[in-house]
Structures are given as structure tokens and as C-alpha cells.
Amino acid sequence: MLRLSLFVLGSLLMLRVSWKALKNPGVHGFYRFFVFEGILALVLLNHPYWFTDPLTPIHCLSWLLLLCSIVLIVESLRMLKKYGGLKARSDAPENLSFENTVHVVDTGLYRFIRHPMYASLLFLAWGTFLKHITLINTGLLILITGFVVAAARVEERENRRFFGSSYTEYMRRSKMFIPWLL
Predict the structure, then answer these.
(1) Which tens digit of pLDDT belongs to each residue from 99-126?
(2) What gap in Å lies between CA 170 and CA 65, rounded to an integer?
């Protein structure tokens, strides 16, 4: 009952933050909402297992992914704030304020990957999944991964439209989520 209550409360909070995006399935925020919902469900389903045998190899890999998730989100937000410049964008009223950059950020972490925040969400989802692998959790992970990819592709379309050829060139020089791989 507690987990269900926490899921409902978390969902209401995410609804409030994502309300504008949910009205427009053509924007990245629409898909990102479902990523957050899936991760919330995964965390609530798996939290009883987080410290069960915490030093097994699978749990160590999980902890490593969770740590990478934290590093990625902190560093990517820092880089956006430092190099992105912020300005309200009338073409993207659904965006959260930190997303309204006016410069393509292609330095630091962004030099290698275009979507470190989405990579952070993938690492969070995979790290949480590894705490307790079940059929339901596997289905959730597949959905989360699909929604992350969809959000990234839609955001790239938005960025090409806003930034033009500089973003297209940036796409050629960088990977989507994992340096040198994907």
C-alpha cells in the first residue's frame, strides 16, 4: 500500500512538471514523462532488494551504474548552465527552463555524447533493474529504454530545427548515449 501511495504521489508530481509536454506528443518531454514513470515504478518495485547481498558482482555492477548516473546528471547540468546560455524559446513552450539553451554545448561531457541526461536515466534504470531481476522488471526496463531512445530522437529533431547545421555537424562528431559505442 505504501509503494502504491508513493507511486501515485510521484506520478502527480511528474504530471505537474510535465503537463505542457503531455499535451503535445510531438515533443521530447512527452516521452520523458514515461521514462520517469517507469523508473519510479522500477525503484519502488526493487527498493526492498537494494541492500540484499550488496557486494555480489551483479550488485556491484548496479552500484557502478547508479554512481555513473549521478555523475552524468550533475556534470551535464553544470555544463548546460556554464556553456548553454538560457533564453525562453517561443518554439518550445513545453521545455523546462534549463532546457532552453541558445548554444550547442559540445564541450566536456557533451563533446562525446549528445544526451548525457538521458544516458543518466538509462544508467539509473539499468542499475535499479539489476537490484532485482524479474519478468515484470525486464518489461519495464525495455519500455524505459524505448522511451529514452524516443525522447532523444525527438529532441534531436527539435535541436536540428532550432540550431540548424551546427547541431547536425555535432551529431556527426558525437554518440547518442555512450562514448565511442552508441
Answers:
(1) 888 899 999 999 999 999 999 999 999 9
(2) 26
